[in-house]
């Protein structure tokens, strides 16, 4: 897992660098939504310099195709629905407890991976 300090184009580039380094030698197909930080000249330059990395953009307004939306919906339901939290740390702890309890099989099912 990689956690970036910035949720912007620079943060996305950090993720791309991390993926490319970890999966060097493999063809990488990354499917992302059309957020503005997933696009732009810096992203184009990176993919041009790293031909094994391919970015495909999901069609707009298709959350059903975006697996992270399915996972997030399930996380919210299991860890935060009908709950009150004292602070953000308590909320984050609940989310972490929930996701750490999931089996690989459950994650594959949520992502429609057989």
Description:
- The protein has 114 residues and is mainly alpha-helical.
- The chain is 51% helix and 9% strand.
- A two-stranded parallel sheet has the order 1-2.
- Helix 2 links the parallel strand 1 and strand 2.
Offer a concise description of the structure.
By secondary structure, the chain is mainly alpha-helical. Helix content is 51%, strand content 9%.
Roughly how many Å is the radius of gyration?
16 Å
Fraction of residues in helix: 40-55%
Q: How large a portion of the residues is in β-strands, by DSSP E?
A: 5-15%
| Secondary-structure element order, N to C | HEHEHHH
How many structural units, i.e. domains? 2
Shape: globular
Number of helical stretches of at least 4 residues:
5
Structural class: mainly alpha
In round numbers, the mean pLDDT is 88
Identify the notable features of this structure and list them briefly.
single chain, 114 residues, mainly alpha, 2 domains, two-stranded parallel ribbon, 2 strands
Give the SSE map:
Layout: H1 9-22, E1 28-32, H2 41-49, E2 53-57, H3 67-80, H4 88-101, H5 104-110
Parallel strand pairs: 1-2
């Amino acid at each position: 897992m990689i956690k970036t300090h910035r949720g912007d184009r620079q943060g996305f580039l950090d993720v791309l660098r991390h993926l490319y380094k970890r999966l060097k030698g493999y063809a990488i197909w990354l499917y992302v939504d059309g957020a503005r930080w997933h696009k732009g000249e810096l992203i184009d330059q990176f993919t041009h310099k790293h031909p094994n990395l391919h970015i495909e953009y999901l069609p707009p307004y298709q959350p059903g195709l975006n697996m992270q939306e399915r996972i997030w919906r399930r996380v919210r339901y299991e860890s935060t629905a009908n709950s009150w939290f004292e602070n953000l740390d308590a909320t984050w702890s609940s989310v972490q407890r929930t996701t750490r309890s999931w089996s690989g099989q459950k994650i594959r099912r949520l992502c429609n991976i057989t």
